[in-house]
Amino acid sequence: MGILSRIRAALHPSPPGEEGFTAVQPIPAADNRFGVDIWDCRAFTHNMVSTTASPEIARRYVELRSSQGNEYQGQTPTNAHVVTCNLTYAFSQRPSDGPLFKSEQMEDKWDIYLFDDELYFARSWTGELTFKARVRYEPGALYITALAAEENHDPAFALRVVDYLVKTHVLRHEAPHPLPSTLPPTPRDVAVFSFSLFGRRCSFGTYADTISMQSSASP
Questions:
Q1: The model's pTM
Q2: How many independent structural domains does the chain possess?
Q3: 76-107: pLDDT as tens digits
Q4: Which of 97, 112, 142, 173 fits a disulfide with 91 by CB distance 3.0 to 4.6 angstroms?
């Protein structure tokens, strides 16, 4: 079962304590700087604390903090499907191979590595390789030309996830994170899904097309 399927499976009927989600609210396009309808998730995602009852997961997370990502070189997500694409980003120069983003605490959900013009996106708790993107560099620009996504990922949504992670985790820009069209537009569902997939780094979720949106440098 892919990571998105596991997150969706966790979104069962609401437990007591719905008041904790009341600050997660929609903001119409006319009232925010992104120009699309968004959900403000900050009250939840910026304050939620991640814990695990599994000693094995806790051990694995700590172990992965010292990884330089070499174990992913040449690997592909499980039963991956590959889609061609043309995602473009302003980029000053090619970084060195190795980690581009490392989780600093359990509320950070991703580790991202670069090797041989391939970007590897792994879950920080388990080390599960979820996406691999083929990149090309030209003066002042980075292009993603193909994406291999873990099984059970909708290709269009997988592209939106990778696009968001590049904008925010690699380039350190601010951008809305994508929400799947099948996710119910309720404060609880949006908050839990957003934190489960993106952790404390996400702030504003949207069902709109995020790939065509320009990101902005974080303050």
A1: 0.90
A2: 1
A3: 999 999 999 999 999 888 889 999 999 999 99
A4: 142
